[in-house]
Automatic annotation (TrEMBL):
Keyword field: Membrane, Transmembrane, Transmembrane helix
Keyword match Transmembrane helix: yes
Transmembrane segments: 25-45, 72-105
The protein's name in its UniProt record: CD225/dispanin family protein
Broad class of where this protein is predominantly found: membrane
GO cellular component terms given for this protein: membrane
Protein's cellular compartments: Membrane
Domain of life: Bacteria
Species this protein is from: Amycolatopsis mongoliensis
Length: 107
């Protein structure tokens, strides 16, 4: 009696899902350096997970991590813009008060 043909798994072979998604690591690093540090660090962590998840076969999770990295980098830039805007408003208000008090002292 002959043994039926046993098919061995092909280790390391994966179906062609295309290239991995863009990990947005550059945007995450730029957001960390130039914008808001805490949110940028979260973006770097999410961006660093993309390729490892992709090559482990977790394609949906890799896409989700790439989207979250982009989201955190974007929120870092938005938070930085809001803080800079509030700072500029504060400076303008302070100059207005200083100017008003200065001109009230001038005879």
């Amino acid at each position: 009696m002959t043994q039926p043909y046993q098919q061995y798994p092909h280790y390391g072979w994966q179906p062609n899902y295309g290239p991995p998604p863009e990990n947005n690591l550059v945007w995450a690093i730029l957001a960390t350096v130039m914008c808001c540090l805490p949110l940028g660090i979260v973006a770097i962590v999410k961006a660093s997970q993309v390729n490892s998840l992709w090559f482990q076969g977790f394609h949906a999770e890799a896409h989700r991590a790439a989207d979250e990295a982009r989201k955190w980098a974007m929120w870092s830039a938005i938070a930085s813009g809001i803080l800079i805007g509030l700072y500029l408003v504060f400076i303008v208000v302070m100059f207005a008060f200083v100017g008003a008090s200065f001109w009230s002292l001038v005879p």
